[in-house]
């Protein structure tokens, strides 16, 4: 099961370590967050101890209202369940009892000056991405006109060279060679890099280049929603000549149980593949808005055929 360390939360959000610093390597495996309320009244039967515990002004104010002995008891009972960590929002003070129990149990007690609602939103988004189910695939991921695209094809077909051309046209690289695809919702995928290949593009004969240093910070994006897959195939492998002329409905490809449309683009010398990829992305956006040029063409053919048949029928009737 995927997990991250509490230390990563501390580093990401610049949290203050109030107590329990020896437990910063503790694992976080759940992207859910809990605000303990009933637990501080003594009801612990359904306490979600696998979750990060957030204490805002309501919880801390309630604890301060308890008699000292009862406060020590209630905090001790909750800390004894050993969740990954506790995070106090709004920079609240008066945490001596909490500090004592967290130090004893090696449970990190952290503090932020952020408001509870805002911090929970930011933390949830971070955990959702870091702990999301993921898959590693071979290809190139780019953002083209706001469309997240995975370029795939056999080794040597020119994916990275195509990515270079698209970068020169103002589009953004996400990842080259290895693309990490994560599921962050029932129907939502994001594509990102594996850190090692961040901002790097590998070109045969040249080697690695840093796209941000060569083309500026706008040439790279850390992640993108994955909307479309474009499969580059050799021209001779595209044997259906009728579909080659007319085009066809995109098929679907599935990653982590989520389907996205896949378009095949045949590659041969002389074809402007970068322009075709740009048009494929624009056309996908048009289809998303409800306009399909192929269907319009088919409807026109149907109307032409219907008109022709009607004219023939009228002509035959007049002749008789």
Task: Report on this structure.
- With 320 residues, the chain is of the alpha/beta class.
- The protein has two domains: 4-129, Udp-n-acetylmuramoylalanyl-d-glutamate--2,6- Diaminopimelate Ligase, Chain: A, domain 1 (3-Layer(aba) Sandwich), CATH 3.40.1390; 132-291, Rossmann fold (3-Layer(aba) Sandwich), CATH 3.40.50.
- Helices cover 37% and strands 28% of the residues.
- It contains ten helices and 17 strands.
- The chain has helices at 6-13, 57-65, 68-79, 96-105, 116-130, 159-168, 211-215, 241-246, 273-288, 293-319, and strands at residues 4-5, 16-19, 27-28, 33-34, 52-55, 86-88, 109-111, 133-144, 147-153, 172-185, 188-192, 200-203, 207-210, 223-225, 228-234, 251-255, 258-267.
- Strand 10 and strand 11 (188-192) form a beta hairpin.
- Helix 3 runs parallel beside helix 4 (96-105).
- 28% of the residues are buried.
- Cα end-to-end separation: 80 Å
**Beta-strand percent range:** 25-35%
Spell the H/E element sequence: EHEEEEHHEHEHEEHEEEEHEEHEEHH
CATH-defined superfamily of the largest domain: P-loop containing nucleotide triphosphate hydrolases
CATH architecture of the largest domain: 3-Layer(aba) Sandwich
Estimated helix fraction:
25-40%
If helices are DSSP runs of H or I spanning 4 or more residues, what is the number of helices?
10
